[in-house]
Design brief:
About 40% of the residues lie in helices and about 20% in strands. Strand 8 and strand 9 form a beta hairpin. With about 475 residues, it is of the alpha/beta class. It folds into two domains: about 260 residues, Rossmann fold (3-Layer(aba) Sandwich); about 190 residues, Rossmann fold. The protein contains 19 helices and 17 strands. It has a nine-stranded mixed beta sheet with strand order 3-4-5-2-1-6-7-10-11, with helices on both faces. The chain is globular. The structure holds alpha-D-glucopyranose. The site of alpha-D-glucopyranose has 14 residues, from helix 1.
């Protein structure tokens, strides 16, 4: 039997380049698919940071020039095998030699326009790989199914190849002017219509991905339903409703090797399901010491690890933060993002010197230690396509308190002290005091009923966050597509 060949196309992929959950997913899904018998590979831009770190392992495959509007641009192709997965990288220092993965919005549109065209140009003979399925992720790759349709299929190329488009976050769509996109993409005018790639009169990469791909997936079953509603649809709910027959929700999993308190080397003390009480106490104490907070073992430590953007419900927290800090609790926040939020949290720390710390930074090792140290993990997202942190926190025995939306609703079940079932706390409405009152209830349970609390921790730690079921769901989709 020949293996199904899949090429993932994305702007980020761990461990090479990461700003968010997209990189985690593209970083782990291919090896999971390969473990189940597929041949899945990845292609992404060769950012400066990758070139610097992996220069010795990168193999040069070929170079060519691509015509982008009036310009002739160099496009190099490199490859590398990493932990059993084959990676390809598109090289062009003019576009990808920047300090960070993303730069300035309209320039990013041009950079990823180049990337998408370069990927299609490299497909087949140059890569020596003819995928059955091209699997694109988020707006940076949304034009690929359309470009395939416009530039290749009419000439008989890749006619049997199928496309899957995964939406990780509908909020970022890749929108630019008609003239610029016509220039960058060399698109016939028949695509520049409201039935094609235009949304409100301008080209929209996310919309193009939805319209021209054979199958659309998103990262949780609940988000897959929510995006048909105006509140979550970010203006594309109508388009999504039109194409609802091809929309599927598949929940993300975790990389269980990276997120495992039994083996996690960043922790003060590693722990498993038998000794979590001891293990968590040691990590909590170490964290209190590092943060110069009072070394109290039985005061609930509330934690939050997040990008500081409005999606994450930061406004809800700011609304009730002072009230929350009046409680007998400690709170540590880790994250970066909008300058406004960063400053609000810095100031809040000054007001609550005795029990609150704001760590306005990105730190992978600190995030591991904080997941392990915390008792309650706060994640009051306004919307959440899947969310990975709530699953990580559960695996580390840090009980999540979330707003019940998207992937949070699919993974966090409210605790019922009578039956002992459930793994966290969840409130339905975007309301700051609903969150605060639930938080007070949670802290009461923590203080007054250690037995119930331990059951809650246990349920979270023993949950199934593996990729196996989800990888199988992707395989079923690929099979269905290839049979059609
Ligand atoms: C985006 C979403 C997040 C999801 C991640 C991976 O970052 O905001 O909810 O978990 O993509 O799919």
């Amino acid at each position: 039997m020949t293996k199904t060949k899949v090429l993932m196309v994305a702007s980020e992929c761990a461990p090479f380049a990461k700003t968010g959950g997209l990189a985690d997913v593209v970083g782990v899904l291919p090896s999971q698919l390969n473990a189940q018998g597929l041949d899945c590979r990845v292609i992404m831009p060769l950012y400066r940071q990758i070139k610097e770190k992996y220069i010795k392992q990168l193999a040069f495959m070929r170079w060519t020039t691509l015509k982008i509007g009036w310009r002739s641009m160099y496009s190099g192709l490199f490859s590398m095998e990493h932990e059993g997965v084959q990676y390809y990288f598109i090289d062009n220092e003019f576009y990808f030699n920047s300090q960070s993965i993303y730069t300035e919005y309209s320039y990013d549109i041009e950079r990823f326009s180049f990337f998408q065209r370069a990927v299609l140009d490299a497909l087949g003979a140059p890569m020596n790989f003819y995928p059955d399925v091209l699997h694109c992720h988020d707006w940076q790759t949304g034009m690929i199914p359309c470009l395939l349709d416009a530039h290749f299929r009419p000439h008989g190329y890749f006619t049997d190849m199928r496309t899957v488009y995964t939406v990780h976050n509908l909020k970022y769509q890749g929108v630019h002017g008609v003239n610029q996109i016509a220039d960058l993409m060399d698109l016939p005018s028949r695509y520049m219509t409201d039935y094609g790639i235009l949304k409100d009169g301008v080209p929209n990469f996310m919309k193009a991905g939805i319209v021209y791909s054979d199958m659309v997936t998103t990262v949780s079953p609940t988000y897959a339903k929510e995006i048909f509603l105006p509140f979550y649809g970010e203006g594309l709910d109508g388009v999504l409703r039109n194409y609802s027959y091809k929309v599927h929700g598949i929940l993300n999993g975790l990389d269980l090797d990276v997120w495992n308190p039994v083996t996690d080397e960043f922790l003060e003390k590693q722990y498993g399901i038998e000794d979590f009480a001891k293990g968590k106490a040691a990590n909590k104490r170490a964290m209190q010491e590092a943060m110069d907070l009072e070394r109290v073992p039985d005061v609930p430590l509330i934690t939050m690890i997040t990008r500081l953007v409005d999606q994450k419900g930061v406004d809800l927290l700011l609304r009730v933060l002072d009230e929350m800090m009046e409680e007998d609790c400690q709170f540590i926040l880790l994250g970066t993002g909008d300058g406004y939020y960063e400053n609000e949290f810095r100031q809040a720390e000054r007001r609550h010197q005795s029990n609150m710390r704001s760590c306005i930074m990105y730190s992978n090792d600190m995030s591991h230690r904080l997941y392990a140290a915390g008792d309650i993990f706060l994640m009051p997202s306004v919307f959440e396509p899947c969310g990975l942190s709530q699953m990580i926190s559960m695996r580390y025995g840090n009980v999540p308190l979330v707003r019940g939306t998207g992937g949070l609703k699919d993974t966090v079940t409210p605790f019922d002290p009578v039956s002992g079932e459930g793994n966290g706390f969840s409130f339905p409405n975007i309301n700051a005091h609903d969150m605060l009152f639930l938080l007070k209830d949670a802290m009461k349970l923590y203080r007054n009923d250690p037995e119930a609390w331990n059951k809650l921790v246990y349920n979270g730690m023993t949950g199934d966050y593996s990729w196996e079921t989800s990888a199988q769901a992707y395989i079923d989709l690929y099979d269905k597509l290839l049979q059609s």
